[in-house]
Amino acid sequence: QVQLVESGGGLVQAGDSLRLSCAASGRTFNIHAMGWFRQAPGEERVFVAARTWSSGSTYYADSVKGRFTISTDNSKNTVYLQMNSLKPEDTAVYYCAASDMFRGYMPKQRYEFDYWGQGTQVTVSS
To answer: What is the Cα–Cα distance from 22 to 80, expressed in whole angstroms?
Structure first.
């Protein structure tokens, strides 16, 4: 089992920056990739970004490409999501996720992630 705990959400203004953190514990040696998803009110949970644990390859949703950066600190078993130039449409609950299966490609679908955090609220005011 892997436990994930997010932090860093909050209320910011459009154009501001925010960094989310997700600390992993438990059987972290099995983790192949980490990702971030978000869910706005009344909408489905959607993919934001992912990063493989060992190689550091990354992948981003088009909506955040160039503004968000996913990174990891393997020594701390922590993944970060640096969010710059925030927009009101970025408002959502952000979830951290971990995949413990090597697939040979970057996981981007919800079903490809095995563990989830509890979520952290990000609100961007205009």
So the answer is: 6
Place of tokens 């706005």: 40
Quote the Cα angle for 51-23-98, to 5°: 40
Residue 104: per-residue pLDDT: 82
Task: For 20-79, write each residue's pLDDT tens digit.
Answer: 999 999 998 889 999 999 999 999 999 999 999 888 899 999 999 999 999 999 899 999
What phi and psi, each to the nearest 5 degrees, are found at residue 100? -110, 20
Question: For tokens 């060992």, what's the residue?
Answer: 54
pLDDT at 99: 95
HEC sequence for 60-114: ECCCCCCCEEEEEEHHHCEEEEEECCCCHHHCEEEEEEEECCCCCCCCCCHHHCC
φ, ψ of residue 17 to 5 degrees: the values are -120, 155
Q: How many CB atoms lie within 10 A of CB 103?
A: 10
